[in-house]
Specification:
29% of the residues lie in helices and 35% in strands. It is α+β, with helices and mostly antiparallel strands and 142 residues long. It has a single domain, classed as Phage minor tail protein U (Alpha-Beta Plaits, 2-Layer Sandwich). Strands 1-2-3-5-4 form a 5-stranded mixed sheet, sandwiched between helices. Strand 2 and strand 3 form a beta hairpin.
């Protein structure tokens, strides 16, 4: 688990130094739960999600570490416009991290990204809150 937390912290550091269309203040949390009132401001939460370990050789194992990046915000009256802008921000974050080395964990290499859900329709319908999860997988050999 320490490996996953180290990589999640490195992702937070990279995102904090990035320039995006909207200002973000990423944080790492182990439990990404917020009250609806907390989502008045844009939240970018980085969560270590899983580690898959395979043998790469007799002496080395391959660790695939999944990191979830949640983007959440309570929306106003213009859902279509706000959802489009926030989906754009999620894409920017994905492009920013793609193939980017993590300064704090140079042994971890970007492998792939997935955005599922692009947005949670039930959160929009029930709470007028945007929730999107970008999953980024990093590979480390140990």
């Amino acid at each position: 688990m320490a490996l996953a937390i180290d990589i999640a912290d490195a992702v937070v550091a990279e995102l904090a130094g990035g320039a995006f269309s909207q200002p973000i203040a990423p944080v790492r949390r182990v439990l990404p739960e917020y009250e609806l009132a907390d989502l008045k401001d844009l939240r970018v939460t980085v969560v270590p999600a899983s580690v898959e370990i395979e043998g790469a050789s007799r002496a080395v194992c391959q660790h695939d570490v999944r990191i979830d990046i949640g983007v959440q915000k309570k929306l106003g009256k213009t859902l279509d416009t706000e959802v489009a802008q926030l989906c754009g921000l999620v894409e920017e974050i994905g492009e920013f991290l793609k193939r980017r080395p993590l300064a704090a964990t140079p042994y971890a290499v970007w492998g792939k990204s997935a955005n599922e859900p692009i947005y949670a329709a039930d959160h929009l319908a029930e709470q007028r809150a945007f929730t999107s999860v970008l999953t980024v997988t990093y590979r480390a050999m140990k």
